[in-house]
Amino acid sequence: xxxxxxxxxxxxxxxxxxxxxxxxxxxxxxxxxxxxxxxxxxxxxxxxxxxxxxxxxxxxxxxxxxxxxxxxxxxxxxxxxxxxxxxxxx
Length: 90
Hints:
It is a single chain. The chain is mainly alpha-helical. It is built from 5 helices and no strands. The longest helix has 16 residues, at about 70-85. It starts with a helix and ends in a 5-residue tail after the last helix.
């Protein structure tokens, strides 16, 4: 499931947020360190995961640990989705 989430996140970033020569972003590449996205890009990612995966990110969850790479964001979305399926909170 995470691979599918990672691919959707990558496609969204490459289409909407990342304007560079290279058309690939590795799963572990830090958005912050490489300048892939800025603060407005983070807000677009928050809106994207809400609309695409039904994941609501609380303000306290919008942090580097959750939103700084494709892998971190995919893991965050998968954890939130799993918690909701179990009727709890992540």
